[in-house]
Write a sequence for this structure.
């Protein structure tokens, strides 16, 4: 975290150097060397929880692919997760870009400029690695588990592609002639042939380790056709029929949502669908 703040402070006035150093000393870069003892910022306090252990195992593999996980030192939801776009678990074409998996600032951490801190650190790190720019998933209006489009627009991001389901690819180029990232054709028109409920998901979101089996059980109890497809490699994810691969639920071929379901949410969804 010290190295990150040093690159940032040269863009600010001398009077702000001490403040910037102090702010970035409060961030921790999680790596394979310290991940076993570090909290990974989600709403789960127990490091032995299956949700945490599954996420940590996923992160360990991604660190070898260039993933960076930077978080506040305090326990809570305040972190950024990014990696070279060629290694992203999403069906995009963005060679030379850095892809932001997740930028999450919530609860008591909101309103303190931490999101800007994290994004600035990502930008500086990406530039130092010779990247052409940043890209990230969002939407026209705020959706659960996707970055806020208002914040992205404020920071200079623009929409460069959009799928039929309203999921957008946003980008922030570092040079005027940087090529535009885009979705692969398989993700532009999210639709599958299989009937019933079909879920595509990865281990990137820790909630999946707990709640996917719970939703499967709820489906069985209610006599609902449900199949969960666990994407377990970047190649599988990069060829998925959906821009969002952390969680993408389909019904009778049509895309429904990227919002992670627990038992209550899934039962509510079943009720809504049955009413139509």
């Amino acid at each position: 975290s010290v190295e990150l703040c040093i690159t940032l402070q040269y863009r600010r006035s001398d009077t702000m150097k001490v403040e910037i150093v102090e702010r970035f000393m409060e961030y921790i870069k999680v790596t394979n060397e310290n991940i076993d003892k570090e909290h990974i910022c989600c709403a789960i306090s127990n490091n032995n929880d299956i949700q945490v252990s599954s996420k940590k195992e996923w992160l360990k593999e991604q660190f070898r692919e260039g993933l960076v996980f930077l978080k506040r030192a305090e326990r809570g939801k305040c972190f950024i997760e990014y990696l070279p776009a060629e290694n992203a678990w999403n069906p995009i074409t963005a060679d030379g870009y850095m892809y932001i998996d997740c930028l999450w600032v919530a609860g008591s951490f909101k309103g303190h400029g931490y999101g800007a801190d994290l994004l600035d650190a990502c930008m500086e790190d990406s530039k130092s690695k010779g990247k052409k720019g940043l890209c990230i998933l969002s939407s026209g209006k705020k959706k659960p588990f996707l970055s806020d489009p208002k914040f992205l627009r404020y920071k200079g991001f623009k929409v460069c592609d959009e799928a039929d389901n309203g999921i957008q690819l946003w980008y922030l180029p570092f040079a005027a002639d940087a090529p535009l990232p885009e979705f692969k054709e398989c993700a532009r028109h999210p639709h599958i042939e299989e009937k019933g409920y079909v879920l595509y998901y990865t281990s990137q979101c820790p909630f999946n380790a707990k709640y996917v089996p719970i939703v499967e059980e709820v489906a069985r109890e209610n006599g609902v056709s449900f199949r969960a497809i666990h994407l377990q490699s970047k190649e599988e994810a990069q060829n998925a029929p959906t821009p969002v691969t952390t969680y993408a639920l389909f019904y009778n071929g049509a895309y429904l949502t990227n919002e992670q379901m627990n038992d209550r949410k899934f039962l509510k969804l079943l009720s809504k669908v049955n009413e139509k």
